[in-house]
Design goal:
heterodimer, A: Rhopdopsin 7-helix transmembrane proteins, globular, B: alpha+beta, 2 domains, 7 helices, elongated
Chain lengths: ~220, ~270
């Protein structure tokens, strides 16, 4: 049972509970959807561990757990895009940009599924998605700095959410590009190098996201007061 | 390329990918701080410009009022006095005509008196010479004699001079409030309270009129209420307006006499 609580799953669960507490009454649908996305992430991670165990034991399941993450990837594309749509809409009408990006991702996703099936990791989709989200993040910063109004960044939920995303997707772009090289490098007998990189990236991502959810809750309380 | 070199290269690339956003984050924070300073500077300049504009407006207004005041005093009242003298020199035999002349003389005398009072009320020099307390007392008497509203003036603490400019601004606020009371409130009583203490001066004007909803204060930007607040801000004072329908209106102007703003320092002579 305790084997399901790794560093990754623990930080994801913490982030999920923070989101549940802070965002359940938020007026913005995009932020509320983050609760659902984080719940799905936690379920996928737990299922991933379960399938990995079956795969390593070599008894029931013949495929590694990549297909779980391929399914999660589809939801990640949608939910994170919705969040970027909501955040960028504060400055510009970003509907066309986000829909175009999402269409491109779905085309690549379907192409990859048709090419190698669902059991192999959709590396190209992940890489393109990471690059797209990095570009959205940079575009957000550009709009933020160009905007004439001053925003106190220390307490801006959108800013911290984007910073977390930028760190994660920028870092994971490198990992995705060198995935097959990195995944054979072993640091300890138990884990590959990619495990440590992704763990570090996850801590950064969910740490920033949790903080942004808390900021969002505080802002909602202040505006109500 | 040896395998270890490839590994190092990959690790360095990964590290760069992790460090780059950190630098971006630092840059954004620095840029944002600069933006904050720039906005603050812009706001400060805007506020200074607004104050300067308001000061100029008030100066122009004061000059105009002074001119009108002089014109009333030096020209109109002189002409009326001359007419009054001329009437006095007539010695009609007809009793009816005599009564009419006397009646006219009384009316002219009253008009001269009213115009002199009005001239004093408009004049900047008058408040500079008599001080705030005395001017308010004279105004209070003038209003009482008109019968429009019954005023009562209370001075608490030892009165001191705030400097003619600041006293003039307070007097103009009083006039604005009085004008509102007479025009809109339908009040029967107006209480004027002046509280002098070392660090604080309170001028409170309280009427028992029909009052108004607090949101009217927000809506009436640019009108008399806004004017009072702008004038108060010019001398570093704060004007608060409290009112509810049927509960009358209370205008309170609070000023720290030691806090200097725009106008010159107060003198220490008593008022």
């Amino acid at each position: 049972m305790w084997g399901y609580f790794t560093i990754n799953t623990t930080i994801e669960l913490i982030c999920f509970f923070i989101a549940l507490i802070c965002l359940k009454k938020d007026h913005d649908l995009a932020w509320r959807l983050m609760i659902l996305f984080l719940f799905m992430t936690c379920v996928a991670e737990m299922t991933g561990i379960y399938i990995k165990r079956l795969y390593l034991s070599g008894n029931l399941h013949i495929h590694p757990n990549s297909w779980i993450y391929n399914i999660l990837l589809m939801f990640e594309m949608v939910f994170v895009s919705i969040m970027f749509l909501s955040i960028l809409n504060e400055f510009v009408n970003s509907k066309s940009i986000i829909i175009s990006g999402l269409t491109l991702l779905f085309i690549i996703y379907i192409y990859e599924i048709l090419t190698h099936g669902i059991y192999k990791k959709n590396n190209l989709t992940t890489t393109v998605m990471s690059i797209l989200f990095v570009l959205y993040s940079l575009y957000y910063f550009y709009c933020l700095l160009k905007h004439e109004l001053y925003v106190d960044l220390k307490y801006s939920p959108a800013f911290w959410w984007v910073i977390g995303s930028l760190f994660f997707y920028f870092g994971s772009t490198a990992c995705n590009i060198f995935y097959y090289k990195l995944s054979v490098v072993t640091i300890t007998p138990k884990h590959y190098l990619t495990y440590y990189i992704y763990t570090a990236l996850n801590i950064i991502l969910y740490g920033y996201w949790s903080y942004s959810f808390i900021c969002k809750k505080c802002l909602t309380l202040i505006s109500k007061a | 390329m040896p395998n270890t070199d490839i590994k190092s290269l990959i690790l360095i690339s990964t590290l760069i990918f992790l460090i780059a956003p950190t630098f971006l984050l630092i840059y954004i924070f620095i840029y944002n701080q600069r933006k904050k300073k720039h906005i603050e500077e812009k706001e400060r300049l805007k506020s200074e410009f607004q104050q300067e504009l308001l000061k100029t407006q008030i100066e122009v207004q004061e000059q105009t009022l002074t001119n009108i005041s002089r014109e009333i005093h030096d020209n109109i009242t002189q002409v009326l006095s001359f007419v009054k003298l001329n009437l006095a020199m007539i010695d009609p035999a007809d009793e009816h005509c005599k009564n009419k002349v006397n009646e006219s003389r009384e009316l002219i005398a009253q008009t001269i008196n009213d115009l002199r009072n009005l001239s004093k009320s408009l004049s900047f020099e008058h408040i500079a010479r008599l001080g705030l307390v005395k001017t308010l007392e004279i105004e209070s008497e003038r209003i009482n004699s008109s019968g429009l509203v019954n005023t009562q003036i209370v001075v608490e603490g030892e009165a001191y001079t705030l400097g003619e400019q600041r006293e003039l601004v307070l007097f103009r606020i009083f006039q604005e409030a009085l004008n509102n009371t007479l025009k809109h409130s339908g009040a029967k009583h107006l209480k004027i309270n002046l509280q002098y203490s070392k660090l604080l001066l309170n001028l409170t004007l309280e009427d028992d009129g029909i009052g108004f909803s607090p949101w009217l204060i927000e809506e009436s930007l640019g009108s008399g209420l806004k004017n009072m607040q702008s004038r108060a801000a010019l001398i570093g004072a704060v004007a608060t307006i409290d009112s509810l329908p049927g509960k009358g209106c209370c205008i309170k102007v609070t000023l720290n006499p030691l806090d200097q703003q725009l106008y010159g320092p107060p003198t220490n002579s008593s008022g």
